[in-house]
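Before a colleague's protein record goes any further, I have to sign it off. Would you go through it and say whether the fold makes sense for this chain? Take the sequence as given and treat only the tokens as open to question. The record follows directly below this note.
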Amino acid sequence: MTTPLTTQDERFLARAIEISRRALEDEGKTPFGAIVVIGGEIVELSAPGHPTAYY
């Protein structure tokens, strides 16, 4: 059974998609975007197209 997404979840997903899209469109890199969320706050963002590099 899955839990429905909250508005906050959707916001976090949109941010990860934005990072991924930027990597693909602006930099021609692998479309990958990730965020780390702790306690409802984004604490890390992946560098566009680099799944192991964070800002």
